[in-house]
Amino acid sequence: MNKKLRPIERTVACLDVHDDVVKKVILRCAPEGWNIMLADSYDDTHQKTLIACAEMILTGWAAVPAWMFDAPNLRLVQKFGAGYDKIDINAARKKGICVAVASGMNADPVSELVVFLVLGLYRKFRYLDETIRSGKWVKSEMRAKAHSLREKKFAILGLGAIGKAVAKRVQAFGAKVIYHNPTPLGANEEAALNVQYCTFDELIATADILSLHLPLTPDTRGIIDAVQLSRMKLSAILINTARGELIVESDLIEALRYGRLLGAGLDVFQNEPLSNDNALLGFDNVMLTPHIGGAVFDNVQNMATHCFNNMKLFMAGQPLPFRDVIVKGNSMV
């Protein structure tokens, strides 16, 4: 009679502090027999203890600085999401440690947030909520103040997985989607997505809504600055659910202060969490959320399953999805 082989135990350090309901889902998705260590704190001492014996790190919001790559057994850092700017990529390369992301797994929730921010600004959600709670009925004002997405030129800077999900959703409202990537899509894919390529300059100058979906790199840091903001329509709105440092925040504040934009919807900021004295808090035409684009309970299982699948592939010496690999690292075989 064949005996069932015992699963190989692997040790994973989960650096993020999660609610209990999220922890249960992550543990349920983990491979049988694996040792999943969940963080209780972001304190360096606690995190150092957590990774001391770990072969793999799973991180969403928590940073992975250079010193973490000195952990003796570490082989893989898996991002619970797509942005890897808080992971020290140079240290990973130096140590030969693989870094992977979960490309596209946040596309649905982030694109939903983009639509919410656009509609919130166009339909004045903040103003309507505040006035009705104070006993005012401002219905008669709104025809002169509110706007529709229909026939607007919706500009996407960075048409990757999230950008494509945004395009699909705003087209349902009748918006026309234009985009800019360093390398344009092929004609067939553009036709299938019903999107039109523009140069960067044209995108900035003609957008009714400009939505940012770029990774943060040395080339994209500060890509939206005073020069680009001055070239946008006065009736345009700016949406950023990617990384705060894509925008020179002081330049955006100046543009808003002098009425050079209709408004802005921001889920990410130059410094997080946002300080209580940040000038962005003082604008009525700005909608703010605390970097929660992908933070929906419905997506935890999908994300965790994808991340653990990457870990299983890596530990088996199998290739990961090519879009997920940031640093190849040393093979397990």
3D architecture notes:
The chain is of the alpha/beta class. The chain folds into 2 domains: 11-105 and 296-327, Rossmann fold (3-Layer(aba) Sandwich); 107-288, 3-Layer(aba) Sandwich (Rossmann fold). The chain has 12 helices and 13 strands. A 7-stranded parallel sheet has the order 8-7-6-9-10-11-12, with helices on both faces. The protein has a 6-stranded mixed sheet with strand order 2-1-3-4-5-13.
CATH superfamily of the largest domain: NAD(P)-binding Rossmann-like Domain
The N- to C-terminal Cα distance equals 30 Å
Q: Which class do the helix and strand fractions yield?
A: alpha/beta
Count of domain modules:
2
CATH class label of the largest domain? Alpha Beta
Give the overall shape: globular
Radius of gyration: 22 Å
Helical fraction equals: 25-40%
List the secondary-structure elements in sequence, H or E.
EHEHEEHEHHHEHEHEHEHEHEEHE
Largest sheet: 7 strands, parallel
Report the CATH architecture of the largest domain. 3-Layer(aba) Sandwich
User: Beta fraction of the residues?
Assistant: 15-25%
Strand order of the largest sheet: 8-7-6-9-10-11-12
> Tally of extended strands?
13
Tally of helical runs? 12
Average predicted local confidence, pLDDT? 96
Low-confidence stretches: none
